[in-house]
Amino acid sequence: MLVEMIGLTKHFGTTKAVSDFTVTLQDGELTSLLGPSGCGKSTVLNMLAGILPPTSGQILFDGEDVTNLAPERRGIGLVFQNYALYPHMTVLQNITFPLEIQNVPREERLQRAREMAQLVHVDKLLERKPKQLSGGQQQRVAIARALVKRPRLLLLDEPLSNLDARLRLEMREEIRRIQQQTQVTTVFVTHDQEEAMSISDNIVLMKDGYLQQQDAPQALYNNPVNQFVADFLGNPPINHLYGALKNGQFVLEDGSAAFTLPMDVTAIQAERPLVLAIRAESAEIAQPGEQAVFDALIESVYTMGKEALAYLKVGTQEMRIYIDPDEGHQAGENIRVALKQRGVFLFDRETEARLL
Amino acid sequence: MTQNDRMQYRKQKRLQRSAAIWSALEPFAYLLPFMVSIAIFTLYPVFNVVLMSFKEGFRMLTGQYTAIGLGNYTYVINDKYFANALTNTALYVAFVVPISTVLAVVLANLLNRKVRGMALFQTAYFLPMVTSITASGLAWKFMFSRDFGVINQVLSWFGVDKINWLQAPSWNIYALIIYGIWSILPFTIILLLSGLQNIDETYYTAARVDGAKSGRIFFRITVPMLAPTIGLVLTINTISSSKVFNELYPLFNGRPGHSYNLYTVVYYIFDQFYSKSKAGRAAAAALILFLIIFVITMLQQLIQRKWTH
What we know:
By secondary structure, chain A is of the alpha+beta class. Chain A is about 25% helix and about 35% strand. Chain B is flat and about 105 Å long.
């Protein structure tokens, strides 16, 4: 189902939770609503569900205005962060409950519940109570309960945050599999960028109630519109070098280092305060004769299996880059660093807008 | 080691040992005042009642008795007033406990809503709890009055003839039951309200998103999730209603019903002890009541273990 949100705004008293939010979700896609806590992503989800009425703006489902439609008439399935499985009902009763409300005949109810249970792999647990299930199994049941109504839109509110690290990876893949199998349009709320990057067709990144950028995960990573987007995505976090342009060179703010950038900077005004953002994988130890090279001192090296992370001192500032652990670089060594084309961005220091 | 060293060493050991003993006993020292008061005011009287129930012809003031045996029990069991008391008490429990629980579940559910001015309603419902039972009993006596009472007046709007609640013996028990339900409600509502507030809001949201109406939410989600609290309420209210006495006293000027027709078990115990000075019979009746309540409570626990999740 095509979901359009047009100028969606939600105020709680004087607090502006969501402001002028305009986003379109494509049919059959899994879209992550991503952002730090308090950015308004859950508020958007609750407005899509119809639990919270928007202050202004419109929500269209396949072109039909549902802004003021009651939750039960929107055809949505909702999975809560704490699953909200009814503790006094068995797994089967939990899954059939939404159908019981719709007065679906008993036989059909059971059949559809069994199909759903098979889809999410809980068909051997139907007679158990939620308390007798692991976190991951409870999550599966919650998804089955949300999907059994055959919703047009599946909403998942931080569904993995109550699980331990291993289960989180497993359930992440499971949610992806179930979504691809059912082809249901899905909204996935999370604050974990890695989760969003790995699971989504599309990421909607929010901050302070405003849309920052919407794009496919890799596009978002490779082409951030502002410094917030660049900072929020990626682990380890993107490096920042503070400085300005002088005579075509990037000069650190205290003048402790200066070097040429691997991009055309002629359009940018000299002396304007800038942030040079470099992904850890976008810088490497320079080969002789390479362009865009600057000096750095290795402060420490952390080897993690196939790769090593080196903490560098550039002038008075610091950055982290990936190096080859087999080359045997040591702390205290002076090296020359080359920048790649990809994953190097220039932002305005004040507005955080992307310049290059 | 010199003589002196050895003495020093022993002294030190002794000190260490007494410190160890003190640290083991210290918790008991703090418990002592509580234990002493429990022993004096609870354990000793209970023990004494058991003894008393076997002492035939026991006199409270002199402590004399004629024989040890089951005489008090055979008297009480064969006493038609005790049989009457048992029947009345059983009827009272059978009406008051289920009706008050159902009413309280409904009222607690209404009081649990976040509505403006709810504090006013809550205060109104909890008022009986802070009012003296003697004062409210007198008020109810006026309300039950045949010719001037508000209850008969309200009933007359529905074409019901005047009922002589307090003077016609056959109606006495219903007056007692109605008053009993009213006086037990606030405490019951408080217990259920705390149970309701422990139910996570997301269960309701989940059901509402699925399209459940409030009736279905109430019966399929609220009530089952409240089951443990309802079980607790049933147990507590069965025990307290089995001991009905306070409600009886003001309604009938201190008599058990208009014409001594409405003995309850506790009124019987009170009567044997204070009016008839038969402490042994009172003790025997008290122990019989205890046994009955004990058995009923155990049965309740057994049943409830099955239907609470």
